[in-house]
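Task: fold both queries, return tokens.
Query 1:
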Amino acid sequence: MARNFLPRGHVERRAKTDLSLFSGVTPRESKCKVDQLPGQHGAMPKKLSEYGKQFLAKQIAKHMYGILERQFRNYYKKASRMKGATGEILLLLLETRLDNVVYRLGFARTRREARQLVSHRGVMVNDGKKTRIVNIPSYQLKAGDEVLIKEKCQHQGRIQEAMQLASQRTMPEWLELDTVNFKGVMTRLPERNEMPLEINELFIVELYSK
């Protein structure tokens, strides 16, 4: 599986926004100089061109969801063929990936950790017909799907820690969590204002429309 080897601190400093790449166990500020651009002593800030703004918007989305260029472009192509606003549909496709929902439910501290949990066969999905192990992080969930953590994984330290951290933040309204049984339900599709506001999807559409 292709991976992005850029240091997480470098990515967050370049994006100049919190991409939730760190676990939250220790303050993000202790991991990197968040107020300083990458480079020796911090590169001098430059006024971004229109292309620069569009490119940065794409990079923020890619790094936030942990997706490389080819897959991200495929998501855009898929979104452009669907009915509705392309940019919003693109975000919807990214937000309803299995690994992202596992992260949103609080079963993992980061999306990277959620992706690993899924890949290692620690997550099951009930689509209303049957419950089965799904080890594809990009698996697309739909409204009503239930996400469960395998029983043998439920007492892993990192999952317990993730759930403790998640209890300190607000659960998205489009998800329901059952902490006792280690399961959650995607009750409906998220609205635009329930998806990351740090991403300017209009810039992404402008970039790929050229």
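Query 1 returned. Query 2:
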Amino acid sequence: MLKASNAQQYERDVIQNNKTAQSKYVPIVPAVKQGAEILLCLAKSPTFKMRLTDICNHVGIHKSKGYSILSTFKDFGFVEKDPQTKTYSLGPALLFLSGRVLDSVYSQQVVAPFLESLAKETQSTTFFGLIIDNYLFVIDKHEVDKGVTLTIRLGYRFPFTYSSHGKVLVAFLPKDEREKILASKELWFNGDNAPVDLQQLRYEFARCRRLGFSQDIGVVDPRYNSIAAPVFGLHGKLIASLFVVGVFDKKLIQPYGRAVAEYAKKISYAFGADVEQIYERIAQEEL
């Protein structure tokens, strides 16, 4: 049996050892840490795409472990795999997560009120899409309950040239970039790689640049009409599109189009764009 003095010293030693152990304990789950390192690895890649071997070598894990983590991320949309090149890249689900961050910084403070007002004015569902690489990602929307349900979820990814917002984005690009896109074999203006009339498109681009909005009258989907306008950021950079989708009558295209264009300008102002200067420059280019 320990003497009283020894017992007290023993108790002090146990307490000290526990404190030391607690101070060294770091609550990190290795698999989660490795998953985070994989996502950061893909984000830092100059080409945005990497093969399994390169990812695992960079992170320092076995290929089987890396494959399991990537497959799990793929199921949740956090990464995508190109079946032809066998490469991995960041997935659109991450945009939804970043979109939630943007909600607190931009959407709730800037975009959301405009979406709500425009939705009430047009009695249509309004969307805000952000340009990332060659896609337009939906990061916010406001629905109007009219018995019409649109299943376009937050984080949904549209091809850059898709529908009315595709027309408006290409229309407001510099001429050389527009022509480069029109020379592409994959154009989505009329839907899933449907045929397009390039001469008609150029006419629509000029009209769009003059009016500030573009339209799709039941072309991509005969059930709906859509109107889109460009959104600019600092230094006049084209960063997004504001668009509405609904079952409104064709005779409302012009007044709704002017409303969408005006709200897009207000959002652009909120993002720091000099809208007047941008449209003055565009008008000069059209002369």
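Both queries returned. Flag for query 2: The first helix runs from residue 4 to 24.
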